[in-house]
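During the reporting period the student researcher (J.K.) took over the structure-prediction task from the postdoctoral fellow and processed the backlog of single-chain submissions. One of the processed entries is reproduced below for the supervisory committee.
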Amino acid sequence: MACCRYVQGGDNGVKVNRLNPVLTGDHANTPLNVEDLSIRYQNLTEAVNLVKWPASLRSLDLTGNKIRTMNSSFSLPPKLRSLSVSTNEMTVFDNVMLPESLESINFDVNQFDVFNVNNASFAVLKTAKVLTDRIIRHTGTCNGVKDTFLGTPFTPVKGGTPSAALTHTACVVLSSVVPTGEPGGPTSKAPVVHGDVTQPPATMEESSSLGLIVDLSAAAVVVVGVVLFVVLRRRRSRRNGNFSHHHAKAVTAITSDALPDHAIAADYHNHHTHGASSHLSSHVSNGSSFQDQSTFGYVYDIRGDADLINYRIPKRELQNKTICGSGGFATVYRATFHDQVVAVKELTANMHGHAQHRHIQAFMNEIKLFATLNHNNIVRFVGVSWTTLNDLAVVSEFMSEGDLRDLLVRDAVPQHLHWFESSSMGFPSSVSKLSLAINIADAITYLHSFSPAILHRDLKSRNVLLSEAFVAKLTDFGISREASDETMTVEAGTAAWTAPEVLTNSGHYDEKADIYSLGVVLSELDTWQIPYSSGTSGSGYSNVQMAMLVAAGKLAPSFRTDCPPEVLQLARACLEMDPENRPKASKVAYELRRLHSTYLRQKGKH
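J.K. obtained the following structure tokens:
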């Protein structure tokens, strides 16, 4: 009897929190069609050899478990295209039948001593992408013929030399031959695990009715099987005007290398100096070519981007990761890469082990744009890393002094930071509110200099990071877009920094929306406070109240009475209700720099 318990919830779909993957009797007619299944880092063991996976599977990801041995009892679905058993410390791969449909198999971070396959499976290995960082060797007794097959080379990190394809050795046996002296012949059965005690294999009668009750939320292996936890999303399609029913799709990504590698761009740095915006646009539109190959048909798929392949960093090269912070769908780590301290922003998998499709797509778009930018006041792009899209990460320079918001909070009481200079306590003498404002204005000027202009759309103190020398640099391009895409919802960005024209129902805007946000940041620098943080009630305004008042022109950021008049005049120009009356970013940067030069000249006279 199949055991599936459905619980409504999740993203427009069905969540299966207990699943029996053994297709017995009446289970063969189940309406559940899981196509993509990811069970990563859940301490699964050799008991998975007993699982008969759903025949509908196209992608299976078992990365990061403890499956030391796979044998002939491991039954793969007939239409499987992608399999990942990476990072399992696997040593034995014994007579596993590989389906002819298999296009990619990831053996990375395993060290094989036994590698038996029959001639049909060997033919699959000869044509599929075989990904592994270690040479596969069969060192045990071979009851067939040892033969070689080529792996797929790993694409090097930027500046590296392309690696040669590894040559692997397998023991190729006739389909009717059972390897001797090795675990798991065709009639053998994997042991059933109960806690820490290995039980004898089940009899044929027992195994025919064996149910594998799964519950990955506890990450436990029970008497009758392996723990699985699957999140399913109901995929609805209209056929002849009707919805197709009972068709589900697992929310996960196929293995990272399921897509074919493309040629590495001859000169990637061209995109840092000119044409970055149009280059991004062309790649997003051309990304539709990956739609048939990608699990979800992403409009842009980073895995097939020839320009970024040379910037891919293997996960294992990001060492000493410690959490710095986390947001709605990503976690930021401090890490080391080749003795360089870096920041790693990585998608956060939910409790089911995968990221949402929309978050993956948005993050890929963010990385694509970020990689094209090169400016002293934009956080420097280092590379991109993934095993699957569920752990996609962007690697950037590490900004040791945190963000501008935290700096202003720390300095709110001592107030060592001033517009023209700072006291000797805590800051270099060259650092001032004015120097930070110039840094920010220069970054916005750079973004707006593209054709069409690139809009940041989420400029605020939290998205201004500080280097060790207190140089301000912009980050977080998650909702940045070209000016040709001129609509934005109120949810994008943060209400306190959002221009009035964006807060209205029309939502149409241009680069002048960034200028308004820059004016709000100037208010933050002047007052040390978040705008509108203390309303008439003393507790501040709600987002709804704030949006209504700002959109109506009845609420604007405040400034201190001792704010330099030149700064106040420029800030108020940035905060004009009519976008046409706001200055360009280049004008703001020029006026701030002119003010700074005037101060230095006057200081030199004394």
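The committee noted the following: Residues 4-234 form one domain.
J.K. will present the remaining backlog at the next meeting.
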